[in-house]
Amino acid sequence: MAANGSPPPQSSHRLPTVSASQALQSLNARGARFVPTGLEQLDKLLAPPSLPGHHVAGGYARGKVAEVYGPPGAGKTSLLLQAASNALHEGQHVYWIDAACAPLVPQRLHDMLAAPRDTPSEVTLDALRNRFHHLAVPTLAHLLALFVRPPAGFPQPSTSLVVIDSLSTPIDNAYPRNTDDRAKNKTDQSKWAAGRRYAVINDMIATFTKFAALHDIALVITCQTITRIRGASRALLAPAVTGIEWENGVSTRLLLFRDWVPQQARAQDKIEADRLQKTRFAGLVKLNGVALTDEGGVGNVVPFAIDIHGLCDINITTDDTATSLVLPIQARPPKRTFDEVDQDAAEEPNSDEVYGWIEDDGVATEGLLVDDVPNTVHVDIQGGSTAEGRSTKLLRTSTV
To answer: Which of 195, 79, 101, 215 is nearest to 147 (CA)?
Structure first.
């Protein structure tokens, strides 16, 4: 014991004790808490709440996982290349993990790095490119091994952004979606593949969140979209990677899409008019773990354009400021009411009704009609004849 001159017992805490001053110095040495997106309007939406008179710059939060999804050509790669350029100019390291194994065009990154900035930097382009690390993962196993058992030096101590481009590609290659998933009688192999897919996704998002929090980096993932149909409503574009654990692990989600600008939008000059024709939209669907819209919604929408030097904001001025950028699409009503469907369900149709081979049913027999016999011609069928004034339909026979 300490009273007998023995050394005091060691603390049982797992983490070493750090003073408040050391923690504050370490926090300041890490740099900004957000990685700017390159769009001022979007950064304002991503900024945390602050006191009046205190401006806090927003962006991709460090220590958390963000997701950017959208159809091909929506601008996902360009959006994250702009964020990577901003992080490099701040003196940070950036890792670009290409899950689709598509060649990254160096000229696109070079143009963004060489673009004029508000605060000129004395750092050369070669020094900026040396802090940009491009990795290719051909399979899902390579991607998991990179984060579960990271090699020495990954990531660098001054890394603020890690981008995983097209994560849905290796997942779909390892566990493809097929027609057996929608069948009523699923095979044991299809059931195992579906369950294994979600198990891998759950472990993956847990690894990503731990990696981002441990290294205090902003981990941003891009995914493709799939089409989802809900009853009689319109088809929706949904993220290709889903799951309960995935939803809980993703802190912020952005949706990129292309659409026509409102008719009230006016261009100030020719350059602005050209940008309006190439307008893209970024919708903030989820922020800090809180969903901002229902399924199928786009949330708070920010218009932007992509030019040779990167991203640029678009200020759409309209006569009516309350006009929304994206008008909601009304769901189409069902062809028949549910009462009519219930009444028809109790009646067993005959073979003619099933195949549509009834008189004057031109829709069901589309492609089978060859010609209409004039009403002046009598066609003998099994010794009889058709009545005058009535047209007879001849069907094309097919052999298998």
So the answer is: 215
